[in-house]
Amino acid sequence: MSTKKIVIIGNSAAGVAAIEAIRERDNASKITVISDESYSAYCRCLISNYLAGTIDENGLIYRDKKFYADNMVELLLEKKAEKVDVKKKNVVLEDKTQIPYDSLIIATGASSKMPKDLKGVSKKGVFAFRTINDARDILNLTTVSHTSCILGGGLIGLKAAYGLKKRGQDVKIIVRSGRLMSQVVDNIASSFILKRFQDNGIEVLLNSDVSEIIGNGDMKALKLDNGKVIGCSLAVIGKGVSPNVKLIKETDIKTDKGILVDEYMRTNIENVYAAGDVCQAYDLTMGKPEINALWPHAVEQGRYAGANICGDNLKYAGSFGMNSVEFFGLAIISIGIFDGDYETLSYADKDKEVYKKVVIDGDRLIGALFVGSIANSGLYTRLIKERINISGIKDDLLDENISYAKIKNLVKEEKEKIYI
Amino acid sequence: MAKKLYYDVSKCLACKSCELVCAVGKSSSKELQAALSEETKPLSCVKVKSLESKNFPIACRHCKEHPCVSACIAGALSYDKTKKLVDYDRNKCVGCWMCVMVCPYGAIRDNKALKIPVRCDLCQDADEPRCLKACPVGAIIYLEEEELDKLLKPKKSV
Description:
The complex is a heterodimer of chains A (420) and B (158). With 420 residues, chain A is an alpha/beta fold.
């Protein structure tokens, strides 16, 4: 086996999965991982649990230092990759160090979108919610802050709200649109989630926007677009994320919203791969490249990139939106497309706070939504992913007793050596 | 040593003895009578479901692809290559149900009260899976894959 220099920029889900895939196939090549954070890989999605106090910093560890040693990985922490030079085949760090590569994986992830035009957004007390450091800074301020405001009713905002409420803060969520989680669930599911937040003492201001953050240095209050002023010394911005593509701006690597990759996770430049939140891979439900910045996809994409660098020709089937969260005991799972001009079947029980919906395009399932009861949701993920013809089981899709037995003869099972 | 559970569907009568012994095994007391009065009812990791007059015990098969491991945002699920087993660390689990969302067999259930995924761990706390001896018709088989292949030679998988 020839030894290569493999460089991975980014040390989260995709980067770690790439390391594991490479080392399953190749123990000789040199792997260097570049990260601008100061920790070994941690569970980014759990920073809200850390904020809530349900796990400590140890609980956040995804792969400890030993992992890098065991896998013979050179881990460069607190080093920011400033640019990639695809002609010279090296990565240039902020301190101008050049790191040459034979194969490169860009797994730089995404960063919180901050509303730059919002007056006062750079005042102290205004936070993004993406990293351990964000969570720690927020936590430090909760000792003196009483009221926390969340800007945005999406997943990030709601997770921050949940965490802060658990820390005893008086929490208000300010949402521009008319409902919560509008990018992930439909109106009915939104109403269930809204009720659960309100029942747990969180004030939700819908159809509202912040026009100014007020204070000298430290923020003291928020001014809403209706003129109302809310006194608070802590604000979290949850306005989505954008892929970290700055380092390839000077290259010919093709981007759209994120870095475009083919089904082998390759960019248009030879030996340069991308994976995770920074990349825009084929979306199975949309039928076009789309960013699905989600942990499970990042892991899969990282694994494919790693395997393919080692000469496997593994085709990545594609991703699609999927999310699972639980707020104050209410479980919510959203898979694929949740609304639109399609056939839908649904069942809702307001008293039990249970809601289930499937979205069908012709004879294919393209989306499913579960609130309150999430049993067997994995079967729906599979039906969507494998593009199974569901015309024969349409009537069973809302049945709570649906099971693998029902779809067994429809799905692709290469050689099912479990049942004999 | 990497034994797995296999099910002979020509024998399974869907008597659900496996479900019962599994749930008891997952209780804190591990005794039927006591388990019934436990505050949080233990759940079975296996569920027997029928299709076209055949019965299929459905449980985690510790599959090679294990999408649950990829999806686990807490690093609580991992794959043990030697044991060919999807391993679970309760101390790391936060009950986010990502694993439930991606299990292609619907073999992971959510225990809402305990906030833990219910899935077959091949009874790591016992000598062998409890369902094995509980099955009155011998429909549950616990073997290494190679041993099963020898056994199956004349037979075809369904």
